[in-house]
Amino acid sequence: MELVIFLVVVFAVFLYVMIRGAIEEKHKKKKYRNYLKEAYGHFAEERYTPEELERISCYYLHQKNQESVDDITWNDLNMDNIFALMNYTQSSSGEEYLYAMLRQPKLHDKEKRLAAMERHISYMMTHEDKRLDTMMVLSDLGRTGKHSLFDYMEYLDQLGVRSNFKHYACIALLVAAIGILFMNTSLGVALVIAVICFNIVTYMNEKGVASPYVTTFAYIMRMVNCADSIINQTYSEEMGDFISSLKKKRSQFQSFEKNSGMVLKMNASGGNIDELLFDYIKMLTHIDLIQFNKMLHVVQKNKKEIFALVEDIGYLDAVISICYFRAALPWYSVPQLAEGMEAPFYIKQGYHPAITNPVPNSFVQNRGMLITGSNASGKSTFLKMTAINAILAQTIHTCAAKEYSGNYFRIFSSMALRDNLDNGESYYIVEIKALKRIMDAAAVRTTPLLCFVDEVLRGTNTVERIAASVQILQQLSQKGIRCFAATHDIELTHLLEHCYDNFHFEEEVKDGDVLFSYHLLKGRAHTRNAIKLLEIIGFSKEIIQRADELAGSFLKSGEWSVKI
């Protein structure tokens, strides 16, 4: 009777633990779903370490080409920050795909991929329950850890082709030893003990090699399960093309699934008698290692299919992040993009998406733009706003503007440059190398070029800077090129007015303070407030007066005349 009571109590405790665990898990999922619901309309707040960004960029690095956004442009525009604002992805596949998407602007849309993506984004934005259901499925897929799936796949390649011959040989030796045991007991016992020791040692050595790679198999299986869950969701016809593609790619994984459970439990420690017994069976027969090698062969043979599945799941995850990004923007537009060389470049009420309370600006350009104005007046921010919107238009089909239209561009910048101390290069050398890469792209272009240059050749003296800047900017004013350049050199606005439109930003010095409007204005800058700023900071009246007289004299005569 006591035994029965004891067993009932044990069963009741076990049942209580199981039910409580299930309830807590359900509560946890409900809480996370509510978080995702409340987060809609807000930018993501996650920030990433250099190590995390290195992992996230792995998918991009595996497929980047000369048409991708290069590192100089990416860093000039602080695109890591833009990525962080929109990254609501729930899986490693999603965040790696989203990062790669931002670095690879479409140069055409002959396959109508942007149009299809727009349809998927619109569906997810207008169907909250389906969006949240999908995010919960993707959250079950989760992250790969500190390494990218692409790193793990490369590690699998390092294993090479692994034969099961030694494992089958271990089984054969064990069977033979047991057979001898019935014919010659003393010899058989010795052989059985020797074979058991040999098999266990061999197993532990081989398992030590295989165990780190089980993580890869586990993530692939989670992707397969994730694909099944997505396919089983009931979506409207707007998502039909995506679901059909996902079904086709998922169907390639039947052979991988077969007996995968044994391998995925390779690193699990047995907690009960049955599991411990099975652990010994595995050590003696190597059956999980045999299955590991079979799965390894399937993975190595089907890398293309695995990456295709990664891309589809990552794409869906990225699409939902774009929905969140759009919802967080004060306003946005779907870009109108044209192929060819002649479309006007137009932005209405465009703004920088990472700036709180931004000042919007508008323009329509059929040629380059030369922008003048004092420091901190808004020139650099305007250049970045325009460049970022061009990238967003051709990647996530979303612009931080009321309207956006233009060509499909290759996009370059030369803006936030620094001395390269590691290579012993001065600022000027770094700058002219950055400009040279733009000139090279302009020379071989088959797609319109959009480039942004902040303070052309600031790293050298005035005379040579103006002379060289004129030649460089003239080259960047050819047909099929839109160059937006900011400068303090008013001379350039006269020398280049035949091929560039002049715009400027103004500030007002009032009551001992400097006020900036940040509005783009037509024409060249006429104000001379740099000397006034010296007065506000507290320089002597004598310096201010003499500097003002010297500047005024130069503007009248074109010659410098310094009085001692």
Strand-helix topology:
Layout: H1 2-39, H2 50-56, H3 58-63, H4 71-76, H5 79-86, H6 92-102, H7 113-126, H8 128-141, H9 149-159, H10 165-183, H11 185-210, H12 214-232, H13 240-250, H14 254-257, H15 260-264, H16 273-285, H17 287-301, H18 303-328, E1 336-338, E2 345-350, E3 361-365, E4 368-372, H19 379-395, E5 403-407, E6 410-414, H20 427-443, E7 449-454, H21 462-475, E8 481-486, H22 490-495, E9 500-504, E10 507-510, E11 513-516, E12 521-522, H23 530-537, H24 541-557
Parallel strand pairs: 1-5, 4-8, 4-9, 6-7, 7-8
Antiparallel strand pairs: 2-3, 2-5, 9-12, 10-11
Explain what you see.
With 564 residues, this protein is α/β, with parallel strands linked by helices. Helix content is 59%, strand content 10%. The strands form three sheets. Strands 6-7-8-4-9-12 form a six-stranded mixed sheet, sandwiched between helices. A four-stranded mixed sheet has the order 1-5-2-3, covered by helices on one side. A two-stranded antiparallel sheet has the order 10-11. A hairpin with a 2-residue loop joins strand 10 and strand 11. Helix 12 crosses helix 18. The N and C termini lie far apart (115 Å).
